[in-house]
Design a protein that fits this description.
By secondary structure, the protein is α+β, with helices and mostly antiparallel strands. The chain contains nine helices and nine strands. Strands 2-1-3-9 form a four-stranded antiparallel sheet, with no helix packed on it. Strands 5-4-8 form a three-stranded antiparallel sheet. A two-stranded antiparallel sheet has the order 6-7. The radius of gyration is 44 Å and the shape is flat. This is SWIB/MDM2 domain-containing protein. It comes from Rozella allomycis (strain CSF55).
């Protein structure tokens, strides 16, 4: 049902509706139950008139307001926060947090711990509460979440390749670069590495296979030490600021990986390409067949005619038509099959 649109200006003339939705008499005579449609049109006209009246009432109330004085109380406050897209949740860069303090009952060190779990919801912070003496000291232990994980190299390996803290993949690449630079690969078997004096001191073996490198390197990697921050508990509020270097992965990397994974899955694409190719071949054959039949219908040669028309076939242009070239392979194949059957 059509509804008249409400205008924004009260004195604008409303456009009259043209009632052109009735069936012509000639058409109505051959349509059964046309009376039901006429009843529907009548109901629509009634609803339209009600809507138009309500629109006029709304316009009058909008452009001729009749206000009444009322006392309104405003409670105003302001708040400032960093936009979510510009900062990370603090727990997203932490593996765990611990507060080590001296228990007032046992006088022994105790710890309050928070350990990150798989399904944890990141937050801007958390609160740890324990009973301690008014004046006491404690240690805040922070375990940083580096992505990818970084390790501290042993002194021997660090001296050999010049790295102190790095990822496992970078350490493996540095070891391989050292092997290539010093030509430590066996001449006859490239998978065998003949260690020089430096690598013998590091790995304690005269030679090793390339497949053993990750395992041997792992023995010289240790997790990074947690960060310890001294705390003081007293009547005065304790505030401090500590800057920590952390390696954080850009969230868009996950989108890149997902896209790359999907890009490698091209089996469906290949199958669709093959199907399209088959459809094109069938379409081409159908086109050739249609053109042949169309040409045959326009100038057929009926079996038994006394005077067949040879003049057109004698012209060279006749054999340059598209349908003749397309049918030539089928004709040649049929002749070859016929000769093969006759030879048997």
């Amino acid at each position: 049902m059509q509804q008249p649109q409400a205008t924004s200006v009260p004195n604008r003339k409303h456009k009259k509706r043209t009632f052109d939705i009735k069936f012509p008499e000639q058409l109505a005579k051959i349509i059964p139950d046309i009376s039901l449609y006429d009843r529907l049109v009548a109901a629509e006209q009634k609803i339209d008139s009600i809507i138009m009246r309500k629109n006029i009432e709304i316009q009058d109330a909008a452009f001729q307001p009749k206000g009444s004085p009322q006392m309104i109380t405003f409670d105003i406050s302001t708040d400032v926060s960093v936009q979510g897209w510009s900062s990370r949740k603090i727990t997203s860069v932490l593996k765990g947090v611990a507060v080590v303090y001296k228990d007032p009952n046992t006088l022994q060190e105790s710890a309050v711990q928070w350990v990150r779990t798989t399904n944890v919801q990141d937050s801007d912070g958390f609160v740890m509460r324990r009973n301690t003496p008014m004046s006491s000291n404690a240690r805040l232990i922070l375990k940083i979440e580096n992505t990818p994980e970084r390790f501290r190299l042993s002194p021997a390996l660090s001296k050999a390749i010049g790295l102190t803290i790095d990822t496992q993949s970078n350490v493996l690449f540095a070891v391989w670069s050292y092997i290539k630079a010093n030509r430590l690969q066996d001449v006859h078997d490239k998978k065998i590495i003949i260690n020089d004096d430096v690598f013998i001191e590091v790995f304690k073996v005269p030679k090793m296979s390339f497949s053993m490198l990750p395992e041997l390197i792992q023995q010289h990697l240790t997790p990074l030490e947690p960060i310890a921050i001294p705390l003081e508990f007293s009547e005065n509020q304790f505030n401090t600021k500590v800057e920590v270097l952390a390696f954080i992965q850009d969230p868009i990397i996950n989108d890149y990986r997902e896209y790359a994974t999907k890009a490698l899955q091209i089996k469906d694409t290949i199958a669709l390409d093959e199907k399209i190719s088959q459809i094109l071949q069938v379409s081409h054959k159908s086109k050739v067949k249609r053109e042949f039949m169309e040409g045959f219908s326009q100038d057929p040669t009926v079996l038994g005619e006394i005077t067949p028309e040879f003049s057109e076939a004698e012209r060279s242009e006749f054999y340059e038509q598209d349908w003749v070239r397309d049918l030539l392979p089928y004709y040649t194949m049929e002749r070859a099959n016929s000769s093969l059957r006759n030879s048997r």
